[in-house]
Structure formats: structure tokens, C-alpha cells
Amino acid sequence: MSTLVLNRRLMLLGSVSLAGLAACGGPAEPPAAVSDPTLVSTTLGKLRGAKTEDGIVEFLGVRYAQPPLGPLRFQAPVKPSLLETEQAATSYGQAAVQMRSGAGAAAYPPVVQAAMTEAFAPPNGIKAEGDEDCLMLNVYTQKTGPEAGATRPVMVWLHGGGFSYGQAGLNIYRGHNLAKNHDVVFVGVNHRLNIFGFLALDSAGVPGFAGSANAGMLDIVMALEWVRDNIAQFGGDPSNVTIFGQSGGGAKVSTLLSMPSAKGLFHKAVIQSGAGLRAAEKEDAADTVSSFILGLGISASIAAEQLQTISTEDILAVAKDLGANKFRPSIDDKYITRHPFDPDAPAQSADIPIMIGFTKDEQTLYNVGNPDWVKTTDAQVLAAADKSLPGKGKEIAAAFKATYPDYAPNYQLMQVTGTFRSLSSHHALASRKSAQAAGVYAYIFAHDIPPQDFVLKAPHTAEIPYIMDNVAEAPLFAGATEDDNAMAKLMSATWVQFARTGDPNGAPGLPAWPKFDAAKRATLFFQKDAKVVEEPFKDVWALIQANPNPNAPPI
Predict the structure, then answer these.
(1) Do the beta carbons of residue 457 and residue 448 sit within 8 Å?
(2) Domain ranges for the chain
(3) Is it true that 49-349 and 360-546 share their CATH fold?
(4) CA atoms of 363 and 388, how far apart (whole Å)
(5) Does 360-546 carry CATH code 3.40.30.10?
(6) For the segment 379-396, what is each residue's pLDDT rounded down to a tens digit?
(7) 68-117, pLDDT tens digit by residue?
(8) Which of 47, 194, 231, 242 could form a disulfide with 236 if both were Cys (CB 3.0 to 4.6 A apart)?
(9) Which long-range contacts (CB under 8 A, 24 or more apart) does 49-53 make?
(10) Per-residue pLDDT tens for 398-414?
(11) Is 164 one of the catalytic residues?
């Protein structure tokens, strides 16, 4: 065969192969390049995250506001400038400056201490005392980029610790498993706390500090603006954002529901063990500023010049003398113009559905380290009940004894104090919310956790690893039995179902859960056999309704 014929046959074979690869006889298109899921473009620049072995993409320590340092200290947050270079987002940002109140973890019995340390361990490299440069968030997702499709519900977590301490990166706060097992986009937020987030210089008339009274809440608003502007690039739906938080995080959710600047930035809300009915009064917040300036020993006339240069340590020392509870959201005539849920639910969030609840034994967490707690007597229970509602102590104690007849006096004490207060605030908020169009769903977490032969029963914070699907990350705290794992699957699916639709019903294994109304107060008890109870603590609630306590704390 001549060389010419051979070449022609090879050319023919080549043309046949191309025809087989290309439609309509055109040349085949090269395969589309696969985008890098760890590189995402945002309105503030490109972020480089990291992909885990099980396929979740994490973006950690993402800056959403300028560092609140120097002239930005005690100011409303300021958006960062667009960064021209790619920014690494592979390690957690620092926590806010911490200001703990009450007994510390050292007071816990050793077994409980070990369980708490396991559950609430901070990331490596985070300073225990925190840092003023803290305005960062973390994102966990399965997919990124335009091809991901901006369809996933977004769940924004607001950490606990009152308004004084805490951070988004703690072990059982991490959203990895919610993203992996439920295909949501999870965001955890750090923001300013204590005196750095809630010093009401503007309310006190100190010039040049607009927004200082509620800077910590305005940080969260700016983080939610970041979510609105960018979360689609992480596969999240910016029109389906749920905010949820526990303890102080729950109170932050309550507060955001009434803040005009937060309107439209989220669409569902979950309040866990933190019904924030009222903010601090403007006058009280202004008085705290006066005490602070006196404590620093500086002249009020030059305070504005000096406050931005005084050391973090000196500021914190004076704040601790004043007390952590002095620094929290307050009425300021612009950003927080009313109490969150007093006397009624805020009209601006009438269309936002809410889930709200507390744990069966909230206060055991704060009493287990007290050696005298186990020595509690019936007389002490009666005295505490009478303090909860003066003149009605005997009736309150009897009502809780009828509900939990097997509880020893030390656990009955937790009912007449902790459960009494939680019922008062959470069901008051739910009752007021139920008057609006959007639904409200009430729950009580009644699944006892294992440390030290269940000494804590179902304490404050106990539900967190279950709703985060993080039981495996904290087996000492949350348990590792079949029942514990089943509870985690039930509760995480319930929270995600609510985030997805605004109605928890339809989550696998969940019994029919009716909306809360002020008459029946239908409440889901999360326990081994989850069930709905109408009019829980009926006799106690009747006493609360008939005898409002004017000395009750505002939150």
C-alpha cells in the first residue's frame, strides 16, 4: 500500500472519530474545567477554604467587618474594603474579649468537668482571654460556586455565654455535621461582647460613639448582611435564612426579631433557653457609663479622646468590678427602639415563624459543683418557691412535686427556681408570638445526659450536641448509646426541617407537633418517646398568670 493511500485512510478514520464525538459534525468541545470548591469569590474578595476528607468545605475566620480597634473601638461596625489578594480562610478567628460571670468550670465535679471540657473545647490557637479583633465568621457547606445552586437552607448560629463570653468555634457548635448529614449551609458568628459590645456611650451623651450601646448586636446584623450578599456562592439560599441560638444566643435571636436594621435579613428563628423579653433601659445603660468612667479615673470631658487608647486589660478590670450583667442590649432610640417581646411580639417579625424551648433541669448545671446542693431540704425548696412568687411558695412547690414525684429536694429546688423562671419567660414569649400570623412551636428538652450517673439530668446547654448532630463529638457529655444517637437524629432533622420550611412537622420520627396557642400551650417534650403535652405545668402556669411577679428579672 502506498504511503498516500495509508495517509488518506488514517485521515478518514480520524474524521469518523471526530464525527462520533461531535454533534452535527462540529468539532468536539473540550471538557469543562472543574472549579475549585475551596476558592470562592465574595463581595469582599476571594476566600481560600479547605475541603475535609468527607467532602465538606470549611471557610473559617472569614472577616465580615473591620477590626474594631483604635478609632473603631466602641463604634458601630464598619465593612471591610475589598481585598485584592486571595485570603486564607482555614483557621478560626479569635474569640471576642471574654468576661465570665458566676462560678467557673473548676467548680464542677471531675467527671462533669471532663464532659464539659470535651463538649465546649475551643479551637487550637484561640486565646483564652479573647481579642478585640474578633469580627469573623465560619461557613460549612457541601458545595460552592455557581454550579452548587443557591438552594440550601442557611442556618446562622449565635453562641451562648450571655452577652459576656463565648465563641462560635467551640467543639459542639461546629456546623460540619449539619452540613454533611442534612445538606444545609451553616454559619457561626463571633461578635463583640460585654463592655466592648454594649457600653452605651451614645445613650450617655458622649459624642462620637453612635451605635456603641448595641455595637455587639450591630456586629451580628453586619454578619447577616454578609450572609445576604455572599451565601449564594456557598450554595445557600439568601431568601431562606434561619437564626438560632442558645442561652445568650437565644436572647440575641429575640433581640434581632425586634431590631429594624435586621428586618429582612432572616426568615425563621429558634430561641433555645434564652427568651429575651426585655432589653435594659436607656437610663440604666447611661448610668453604667458614668460608673465606668469614674472607675477608670479619667475626666468625663476628655473620655472620648482616651477611651480608644486605654488598654484592653484596664477597661476589662473596671468592667468586672461593675459586673457582667451591666453590659447587654439596651434601648437606644435608633437600633433597639422597644423591648423585644414586651408588652407584645414585635410587629416587624410577624411573618417569621419561631421555635422556642428550654431544658427540663436548666439550673443543675450551675449547682452541681456546690457541695451543699445535695443537702437541700424541703424547707429550702419551700423558701425558694416563695421567693419565686411571694406568698405562693407552698402551691408552687406542691405543683412541681406532683409533676416530678421522684425528684429529691435538690432537684425540686431546680424546678421551683429554674423551671419556674423558664416557663414564665418562654411561654410568655410564645403566647405573645402566637397572636401573630406566623406559627410558634414550643418544646422542652427532657432527655437526661450521662455525666456522673446522670447527676445533671437535662441541664442548660444539654440539647446543643443533639440539634447540631454532634453527639459523636461529645460522648462524655451527650452519651453514645442508641437512644442518644436516635435523639440526635430526631432533633437535628427537626431543626433542619424547620429551617427548610418554617414548620418542623415532617421531620423523620417526629410526632405531630401543633402550633402553640395561649390556651392549650401545646409543647413537644424531646425524650425517648417524644410526645406533645397540652397545658404543661398547668397549675404553675395558672399561678404565674394570676400573680405576675414585679421583681422578676428582665431576661
Answers:
(1) yes
(2) 1-28, 49-349, 360-546
(3) yes
(4) 14
(5) no
(6) 999 999 999 999 999 999
(7) 999 999 999 999 999 889 999 999 999 999 998 654 444 899 999 999 99
(8) 231
(9) 49/89, 49/90, 49/139, 49/144, 50/90, 52/176
(10) 999 999 999 999 999 99
(11) no
Cell numbers 440539634 correspond to 467
State the catalytic residue, choosing from 247, 349, 431, 434: 247
Place of cell 425558694: 384
Cβ atoms of residues 25 and 19 within 8 Å: yes
Q: Give pTM, 2 decimals.
A: 0.92
User: What cell does 31 get?
Assistant: 471538557
As given in the structure block, the three cell numbers for residue 537 are 405545668
**Residue 245: beta bridge partners?**
158, 271
* Residue from 151, 182, 189, 149 nearest 168 by CA: 189
Kindly give the interhelix angle for 538-546 and 420-433, rounded to the nearest 10 degrees.
70
Here the cell at position 397 is 412547690
Cis peptide leading into residue 122 (ω within 30°): no
Residues 142 and 180: beta-carbon distance below 8 Å = yes
CATH of segment(s) 49-349 = 3.40.50.1820
Return the C-alpha cell found at 164.
459576656
d(CA 59, CA 81): 19
Q: How far is CA 384 from CA 190, 396, 410, 426, in A?
A: 37, 10, 11, 20
Residues 6+ apart with CB under 8 A from 503: 353, 439, 497
pLDDT attached to residue 301: 77
Q: Kindly report, residue by residue over 137-160, the tens digit of the pLDDT.
A: 999 999 999 989 999 999 999 999
Q: Tell me the β-bridge partners of 60.
A: 90
